[in-house]
Amino acid sequence: MKNRSATPWKKSRTFGDIYGGRMHRRLTDNIFARAHSLQRPAPGQALPLLIQDNPSREFFFPVSVEECAAALRALPVDHGKGVTHIWLRRRPVRMTGPNAPLAQFIYGSGVRVIVLYPWRVDGRLYVGRKKPKPQHVAPYVRYGAKVVSDQGRWHVDFSQADLRRFYIEHLFCHEVGHHVDWYTRHWSGANARQTEEFADQYAVQLASDASVVVSTPYSAQGLAAPPGTDG
How far apart are CA 200 and CA 150, in angstroms? Predict the structure, then answer.
């Protein structure tokens, strides 16, 4: 009899191999992440707390943590209630490759964190050596990205303005959608598909509210433009 621990739907705890499911992860997979190093906010502390890491020489953040906070304030007031941190996080060494998420919603231990990860300085996001299926690059194309092949590797390429819109209107709003969904339905791993659909729809419906942030030049906000942007 075959050992149940070896059945093909199991996830390998050693190598992270995935069997029986989709091999192409979505932009915001791992929405149930709980591992973090953040402390629970002190009583009476102004929220959300804003954290922006140094992303390293090869990466940059197309938006600032202050812009993310402004986008949260532009959304309906109850939607941001309970968000404890906005974290522009340096990408961990273990979190690389085409399957690495660009954003996450982290919860647990008294925190509710919206995390955005940086973009490559060369402007490219590699998506594999085979031409990606349209549904796998649809969120990028929706925001003006071009899907390009270069020396056998496929990547998406944004203009500076479109990349900023993509970060605020899609990535950030999507994670806020997970936060809103958590308080309305208390989702679990059993309904992960429904949570992704809810967050996608939330981002589409609320993008116009948050878009005021990326339509305002850095100079008008009193902020310095990050590398890779034209200010």
Answer: 30
Instruction: Please tell me the distance from the alpha carbon of residue 68 to that of residue 50, in angstroms, as a whole number.
Output: 9
Phi and psi at residue 116, in whole multiples of 5°?
Answer: -120, 140
**Helices and strands of the chain, counted as H and E runs:** 6, 9
For the chain, what percent of residues have pLDDT higher than 70? 74
Q: What is the pTM of this model?
A: 0.79
E strands, 33-175, in order: 49-52, 59-60, 85-88, 103-108, 111-116, 119-120, 124-128, 146-150, 153-157
User: pLDDT of 58-106, one tens digit each?
Assistant: 999 999 999 999 999 999 989 999 999 999 999 888 877 767 889 999 8
Q: Which of 86, 92, 94 is nearest to 111 (CA)?
A: 86
d(CA 170, CA 89): 17
pLDDT for residue 192: 77
- In 3D space, the residue among 30, 9, 1 whose CA is nearest the CA of residue 94 turns out to be 30
Residue 199 and residue 174 in contact, taking contact as beta carbons nearer than 8 Å: yes
